[in-house]
Design goal:
This is Cysteine synthase. Its EC number is 2.5.1.47. It is an enzyme of class 2 (transferase). Keywords: Amino-acid biosynthesis, Cysteine biosynthesis, Pyridoxal phosphate, Transferase. The chain has about 290 residues and is of the alpha/beta class. It is built from 8 helices and 10 strands. Strand 4, helix 3 and strand 5 form a beta-alpha-beta unit. The protein is globular, with a radius of gyration of 18 Å.
């Protein structure tokens, strides 16, 4: 018998077959939507709360606060509830209604503001009062260390140590930082590829941060290459992924697969793994699948 927290991680790798343009290259998606909270953020959320409890940063009666664009908030709401901790989540007002309702279903208080930068400022101000504990996924080493300890070792194991390229969206950058740290230790030749939106593109889960808001956990030396993804390419690839590969995911996953396919076209051979961040049902009220 397993509790909910025991179900976080060990998500499957699935091969992309119909959309892969190069028969000499394997492309695999790591299906993070299979986590109990429905996204890759379950890993970081559990790591941040668990380690803060163990350090004594969170004491009985402590309230948590965090700014999030969605998936981290859902994961934190679920896990905070399991630990009996109150949490306030601050989201951009353009977040899909499904995300807000899911957080509230798990017992979180939700505040909507204009833009993720405003959300981060608000959460930091409240955290500074001492009334709340700010987890701050953008500067919290427990974020990327979750992926160093779990996500990357699973990929290494499940590709039989054959991975040659790792592709990930860059939001808080926790996933790519932690996976890069582990994968470069076991094989320095593995190429780490990050995805960011082209200028003017809006892709939930992938950010091009202003300098002042660049996540403090981000170390550019751990990323070998950054690929710019256009919003329309991410949308079309997300739809194709559902229709042709049977993978129902969000737009950041489509963006990462778009990068993986471009990469496959350049290679003579290789094994590419991209992070399929979440599930598509979080976006049904948007125009993503319209």
């Amino acid at each position: 018998m397993a509790g909910m927290l025991d179900l976080i991680g060990n998500t499957p790798l699935v091969e992309i077959t119909r959309l892969n343009p190069n028969p000499k290259v394997k492309i695999f998606g790591k299906l993070e939507g299979n986590n109990p909270g429905g996204s890759v953020k379950d890993r970081a959320a559990y790591s941040m709360i668990k380690n803060a409890l163990e350090r004594g940063d969170i004491k009985p009666g402590t309230k948590l606060i965090e700014a999030t664009s969605g998936n981290t908030g859902i994961a934190l709401a679920m896990i905070a509830g399991l630990f009996g901790i109150e949490i306030e989540l601050v989201l951009p007002s353009n977040s899909t209604r499904e995300r807000t309702l899911t957080m509230e279903a798990f017992g979180a208080k939700v505040v909507l503001l204009e833009g993720i930068e405003a959300c981060r400022d608000y959460a930091e101000e409240k955290g500074a009062t001492g009334e709340y504990f700010l987890l701050n996924q953008f500067a919290n080493a427990d974020n990327y260390m979750a992926h160093y300890r779990t996500t990357a070792p699973e990929i290494w194991r499940d590709t039989n140590q054959g991975i040659t390229h790792f592709v990930s969206a860059m939001g808080t950058t926790g996933t790519i930082m932690g996976c890069s740290k582990f994968l470069k230790e076991v094989n320095p030749n593995i190429q780490i590829v990050g995805c960011q939106p082209t200028e003017g593109s809006s892709i939930p889960g992938i950010r091009r941060w202003p300098e002042a808001y660049l996540p403090k956990i981000f170390d550019p030396s751990r990323v070998d290459r950054v690929m710019d993804i256009a919003e329309e390419d991410a949308i079309q690839m997300t739809r194709k992924m559902a229709r042709e590969e049977g993978i129902f995911a969000g737009m950041s996953s489509g963006g990462a697969l778009s990068a993986a396919i471009k990469l496959a076209e350049e290679l003579e051979e290789g094994v590419i793994v991209f992070i399929c961040c979440d599930r598509g049902d979080r976006y049904l009220s948007s125009e993503l699948f319209g």
